Amino acid sequence: MCPELLSSPLASHTIPVITFLLREVGVDSTFDLRQALRRRPRLLACSVDHQLRPALYFLQSLGIPEPRRHTYLLSCSVEGKLLPRIEFFERNLGFSRRSAAAMFKRFPQLFNYSIGENYEPKLSYLVGEMGRDVREVLEFPQYFSFSLENRIRPRHVACVERGVRLPLAVMLKTKEDGFRDALEVCCDSSPPLKTSRLCCVQKDS
After folding, report:
1. Could you tell me the end-to-end alpha-carbon distance of the chain, in angstroms, rounded to an integer?
2. Alpha-carbon distance 204 to 186, whole Å?
3. Contact at 8 Å (CB) between 100 and 91?
4. Global confidence as pTM
5. CA–CA separation, 173 vs 146, rounded Å?
6. pLDDT per residue over 73-117, tens digit each?
7. CB 43, CB 33: distance < 8 Å
8. Fewest beta carbons within 10 Å, which of 47, 73, 94, 98?
9. CB-based contact 191:162 (threshold 8 Å)
């Protein structure tokens, strides 16, 4: 899974990494440490000074809470992976650095997704097929975590067939039964209550 581990001197390399995770990142138990290393064993092959600590400082600069919950990102290159994903939203969508960074603060898993295989096709569908404003992903960056073919497209088609426009979060996060119920509520003649998550639903004419 990670060949570099086979050539890493245990005492001189692995122990500093573990010390860094415990003391600087804040991993606070043996169980959590094992979970972090099981999820991303490559952490043990990374340089603390040249890789892990710069990545930690970058995540902290974004205001991401509890970096210990996102240790899998520490093995990612700041210049090669993390920063380019923020810059993609600035360069291609016109988001400000502050707005783009806020997306990743809200949903750090966004760093894991491919620009070409995830961001671009899903944004193309959001704007081209769904007719939505790209700025909707600022409030709901979890949009990128859903499968285009298995969740986004089928639910959008279901909404189109019923003449309903649901908020992205309601359309995608809701379980299947809840999604169908939301469609029924929106197709009913009575409008949803103002306190309901459906209050911003639009009925297409």
Report:
1. 54
2. 11
3. no
4. 0.84
5. 9
6. 999 999 999 999 999 999 999 999 999 999 999 999 999 999 999
7. no
8. 98
9. no
- Encoded tokens for 179: 């999604």
Tokens 């709901």 sit on residue: 140
Percent of the chain with pLDDT over 70: 86
Which alpha helices (DSSP H) does 115-195 contain, by range?
120-124, 136-139, 153-162, 168-173, 176-187
- Which long-range contacts does 121-128 make (Cβ < 8 Å, 24+ apart)? 121/148, 122/148, 122/152, 123/93, 125/152, 125/153, 125/156
Domain 3-110 has CATH 2.60.40.420: no
Beta carbons of 156 and 145 less than 8 angstroms apart: no
Q: What are phi and psi of 165, to 5 degrees?
A: -125, 105
Contact 166, 172 (CB under 8 A): no
pLDDT at 178 over 60: yes
Q: Above 50 in pLDDT, residue 1?
A: no
**What's the whole-number mean pLDDT along residues 62-70?**
94
Q: Is 164 exposed, middle or buried (0-12, 13-18, 19+ CB in 10 A)?
A: buried
β-pair type (164-165, 202-203): antiparallel
Distance CA 148, CA 144 (A): 9
State the pLDDT at residue 12: 74
DSSP 8-state code for residue 73:
G
CA atoms within 13 A on the CB side of 181: 9
